[in-house]
Design brief:
Elements (H helix, E strand, L loop, with lengths): L1 E6 L6 H4 L4 E4 L2 E4 L2 E3 L7 H9 L6 E3 L3 H13 L3 E6 L7 H10 L6 E5 L4 H16 L4 H14 L1 E6 L3 H5 L5 H9 L2 E7 L6 E8 L1 H16 L4 E7 L3 H14 L2 E3 L3 E2 L2 H4 L6 E8 L10
Parallel strand pairs: 1-2, 1-6, 6-7, 11-12, 11-13
Antiparallel strand pairs: 3-4, 3-5, 8-9, 8-14, 9-10, 11-14
Helix pairs in contact: 3-4, 5-6, 9-10
Length: about 290
């Protein structure tokens, strides 16, 4: 038996991971003096509510090595092999912490996979691996499919306000202020090759940024049948606009919309809207109809 370990940089709807052999190890987030972790969790709804009520910026930290050690030991004691799939190593030290933990649990047989992405991009990889396990796929066959998904599924994001990106150092203070004054909205892509963020363009207004994301996907995929999932902080109007635009322009099946997990939303704030999208054929035989 193979079991999956992932982290809270992974966003999945409950219906997408129900019945799958998946264990989540939380990354940590704090607002002011209060910290949230495995013992003191916070839901996305509560997290974004608190953000709206404070001027303080949240802080995050990678999952504790001890949490991974405990998880690996528990799974190894059941006699299971472990597939540990994590948020992009270029964006977080989580996979390095997981590797360090595995070295402390010699009885655990752990295979690591860097998703090179985040949110439901990571979630789709976890879901596909879980469904493959239920179908008795071997580890090499699972890894081969995960590599295809990693290489062909795109993640792109935009947001109305930039102050969380500025506070987290992801864009410079001067550039951020100028962009806000000029109402310029960035389009952020996740690079398939290494998992880093990269500049996908800019637009004058949030709506135009969403339109540009759709145009980029239309140019890339054309009429290919696609799977898509829209994620957001707390921006239902952006979600509704993006989904409508996708359905008008692309041959797409949209999954349930998801809130971005607090540990990711801490760096982007409530105005984030993102799109995870890729060929539906990648999930053939793995995603229940």
């Amino acid at each position: 038996m193979i079991e999956i370990v992932t982290d809270s940089g992974c966003d999945l709807h409950e219906s997408q991971f129900a019945g799958l052999p998946v264990t989540f190890v939380p990354l940590n987030v704090s607002i002011g003096d209060e910290s949230f972790d495995r013992d003191n969790p916070i839901s996305p709804v509560e997290f974004y509510r608190r953000l709206s009520e404070t001027l303080q910026f949240p802080k995050t930290s990678q999952a504790a090595i001890g949490d991974f050690v405990e998880t690996y030991r528990t799974i190894a004691a059941r006699g299971s092999e472990i597939l540990s799939i994590h948020i992009a190593g270029a964006l977080s030290g989580t996979i390095r912490a997981a590797r360090a933990a595995a070295a402390l649990v010699p009885e655990a047989k752990v295979t690591f996979f860097d998703s090179r992405t985040l949110t439901s991009g990571l979630g789709w990889q976890v879901q596909a691996a879980g469904q493959a396990i239920l179908r008795n796929w071997g580890i090499d066959q699972i890894l081969s499919r995960l590599e295809l998904i990693r290489d062909q599924v795109d993640g792109q994001f935009t947001l109305k306000e930039l102050r969380y990106l500025i506070a987290g150092g992801r864009i410079s203070h001067i550039k951020g202020i100028l962009a806000q004054v000029l109402n310029i909205k960035p389009i952020i892509l996740v690079n398939h090759e290494d998992g880093h963020y990269e500049d996908g363009g800019k637009a004058i207004s949030f709506q135009r940024a969403l339109d540009q994301i759709v145009r980029l996907k239309e140019k890339k995929f054309g009429s290919v049948p696609l799977r898509a999932q829209v994620v957001h902080g707390q921006c239902p109007e952006g979600v509704a606009y993006l989904i409508e635009a996708l359905k008008k322009k692309l041959n797409v099946v949209c999954e349930e919309t998801l809130p971005v997990s607090p540990v990711l939303g801490a760096h982007t704030g409530p105005s984030l809207v993102g799109l995870i999208i890729g060929p539906l054929s990648l999930f053939k035989e793995l995603i229940p109809a």
